[in-house]
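Bench notes, afternoon.
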Amino acid sequence: MPRALSLSILAAGVIALGGCNPAEPDAPEKAAAPATAITPTAAADIPEAVRTVALAARPGMVIAEAELKEREGRRYYDVEGTLNGAGIELDLLETPGGWQVVEIQRDIPWSAAPAAVRAAAEGSRSGFTPVRVIESTQAEDGAVIYELFADGQPATPVLEVRAANGRTDVLTEAWPH
């Protein structure tokens, strides 16, 4: 190999490595979401036990459709519809005692997320502005999980932030529900 070509290759490698900055922190890595089997369900085909629990949790909800989701040995029904004209989704988990609401979700604009949630996201991923935000209130303890989606990645949130009891934390693992 001619010496000039060897030096050119070496210089290109040095320049490429110069662009790497190991001292700059990356965004926290989130564990991949578990695989989920999804079965769409028409409103008329939703099991009566699921319908009863959903309507008891949100009287007046107009149910449009649902999905049966199965992952990691758990079965959920995601029941979608409207309440007072606004979109809403209830996630119900099958338990030994019957179906139980575990989350109540709605889409919100990023500007409507609490300032502490926006600050936590900015601290984790500088300059990141989500294109979709799902506000997910946990039925068990009232905590709110903000699922933040990036452009071109509609299936899985790229960041989740939990707000509860005056604390706001960026999650490093996918929320179980």
